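[stage:ingest] chain + small molecule (NAP)
[stage:ingest] validated
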Amino acid sequence: MDGRVAIVTGGTRGIGEAICLSLRDAGYKVAAGYGGDAAKAARFTEQTGIPAWKWDVGDFQACAEAVREITAALGPVDILVNNAGITRDATMHRMKHEQWLEVIHTNLSSCFNMCNAVFDSMRERGFGRIVNIGSINGQAGQYGQVNYAAAKSGIHGFTKALAQEGAARGITVNAIAPGYIDTDMVRAVPPNVLEKIVARIPVGRLGRAAEIARGVAFLVADDAGFITGSTLSINGGQHMY
Ligand SMILES: NC(=O)c1ccc[n+]([C@@H]2O[C@H](COP(=O)([O-])OP(=O)(O)OC[C@H]3O[C@@H](n4cnc5c(N)ncnc54)[C@H](OP(=O)(O)O)[C@@H]3O)[C@@H](O)[C@H]2O)c1
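[stage:predict] done
[stage:export] tokens:
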């Protein structure tokens, strides 16, 4: 859609990069966020023409400032994709308090920080599309991931609550729960563990980042205004409920 402005956090690689490309190709003005990998972000901008901003999505003030800068550069934000996320896996008896906090801040507080920064403007303009990237592991749980599963599960509740607040103002809020997608995050899983995971996916392979982007493009479209508070599971049939 020509002219609409979209922010994609964690947009310079992995699933976020695919989302940026898909939205750019659909005619949106896209701003990508990233956390620290400046070299990758520079390559991304060079190759795609999509500008990238660096800020920590876990930092409330930094999110507000980033939204101000992007608004000044591209215009008011119509679409927000909360995609940035990390894992810091450990079983409960080994997990450090910092690992818990880092994942909760980066994966869940980020949704509050970013939505808080764009919501007033969306309300005033009577239009908004917010998509939060959850996870199959927030739906089903996962050994060694109490922090990640709690944060992602929290995203799903957050989405349903905010959807109710936005509904009368033309703002939709939805979540996507990806299964295992072939990105750096999943490549970090030991090969023997990954083999067992793939064996449990009925489609018989990892997902592709572009297959998550497909869902985002669907949910942010102008004519998706009746879809709100939903979670779209894109997981190759691994978890159905
Ligand atoms: N891959 C999967 O199988 C899978 C499955 C379910 C859900 N997900 C979710 O999908 C989303 C994307 O995953 P991915 O696999 O594409 O991850 P990824 O390849 O590891 O990329 C993560 C992105 O998030 C950014 N980021 C990390 N911490 C940040 C912070 N504090 N502030 C701002 N940006 C930050 C990174 O920036 P830098 O490049 O600067 O580090 C990077 O752009 C995540 O929310 C993840 O939990 C992924």
